[in-house]
């Protein structure tokens, strides 16, 4: 594998002048034909292959991190919905995660091939024991929780959105229960999809909360990322604790 570079800062470089066409008489369904044509002509797909990233999604994290500076050497990072491993590669490289004692852990119910500097759990994040297993594998509280989780598509757009939004919410609650003070949370969401209740919860817990759309996220896609920076820390005098003390 070629050593992954720092990644692109623009979407344009590497674009090929000649467009590959997939013939209408290819035997494919029209939606599949369009998908294949777009894939074959996508500069990010070409660059991810050339630079050794496992997915074109790697560029989304590269672009967000170049701009918002989330990942620092020495950080501990959790990556939810990590297959096939593009974000894990980017995180491991940017935090200088050691091969012998990785400080990034990824979880997915799909299998992920080994990645130097990353611990991989093949498991459903919604399982009750997943949060404890992630923190145990990490060996301490994370500085950054990433989630690119997306529910498998059913073909019914509204259902797909609701299921992915549920994953985003569970990821957000996980983040506020495990992050170090000053830590960051980045998660996939959809335009118009983030519930006010979730946004309010994040605004109470983080100093800044915003939606970001990196250039690598296709314009025609309703995908967005929710970025919550600078976790305020858990309130030690929260009502539950007060009850325990009474
Ligand atoms: C868009 S892909 C992630 C791509 C990844 N960031 C990369 O760069 O290679 C979304 C992933 O979320 C995973 N996923 C969805 N629901 C999940 C769950 N409940 N537990 C674990 N992984 C889940 C899917 O299996 C899928 O691999």
UniProtKB/TrEMBL annotation:
* Compartment(s) of residence: Cytoplasm
Q: Tell me which residues this entry annotates as catalytic.
A: 188 (proton acceptor)
Q: Which InterPro entries match?
A: RNA_methyltr_RlmE, RNA_MeTrfase_FtsJ_dom, rRNA-MeTfrase_E, SAM-dependent_MTases_sf
Q: Which residues form the Ribosomal RNA methyltransferase FtsJ domain?
A: 53-231
EC number(s)? Answer: 2.1.1.166
Q: Which UniProt keywords apply?
A: Cytoplasm, Methyltransferase, rRNA processing, S-adenosyl-L-methionine, Transferase
Which positions are annotated as binding S-adenosyl-L-methionine?
85, 87, 108, 124, 148
Could you say which enzyme class this protein belongs to? transferase
Q: Which GO terms describe its biological process?
A: methylation
For this UniProt entry, which segments traverse the membrane?
none
Which family does the entry's similarity section mention? Belongs to the class I-like SAM-binding methyltransferase superfamily. RNA methyltransferase RlmE family.
The protein's name: Ribosomal RNA large subunit methyltransferase E
Species of origin reads Aquamicrobium zhengzhouense
What does the organism's lineage look like at the top? Bacteria, Pseudomonadati, Pseudomonadota, Alphaproteobacteria, Hyphomicrobiales
């Amino acid at each position: 594998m070629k050593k992954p570079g720092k990644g692109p800062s623009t979407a344009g470089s590497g674009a090929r002048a000649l467009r590959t066409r997939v013939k209408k008489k290819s035997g494919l369904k029209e939606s599949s034909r369009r998908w294949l044509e777009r894939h074959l002509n996508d500069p990010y797909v070409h660059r991810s292959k050339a630079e050794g990233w496992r997915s074109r999604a790697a560029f989304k994290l590269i672009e967000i991190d170049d701009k918002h500076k989330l990942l620092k050497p020495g950080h501990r990072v959790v990556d939810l919905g990590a297959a096939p491993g593009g974000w894990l590669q980017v995180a491991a490289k940017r935090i200088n995660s050691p091969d012998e004692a990785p400080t990034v852990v990824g979880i997915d119910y799909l299998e992920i091939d080994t990645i130097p500097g990353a611990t991989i759990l093949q498991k459903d994040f919604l399982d009750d024991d997943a949060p404890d297993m992630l923190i145990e594998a990490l060996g301490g509280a994370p500085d950054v929780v990433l989630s690119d989780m997306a529910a498998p598509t059913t073909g019914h757009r509204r259902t797909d959105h609701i299921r992915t939004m549920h994953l985003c919410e569970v990821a957000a609650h996980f983040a506020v229960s495990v992050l170090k003070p000053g830590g960051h949370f980045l998660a996939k969401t959809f335009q118009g999809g983030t519930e006010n209740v979730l946004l309010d919860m994040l605004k109470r817990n983080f100093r800044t909360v915003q939606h970001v759309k990196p250039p690598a996220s296709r314009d025609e896609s309703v995908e967005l990322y929710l970025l919550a920076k600078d976790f305020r820390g858990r309130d030690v005098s929260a009502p539950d604790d007060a009850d325990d003390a009474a």
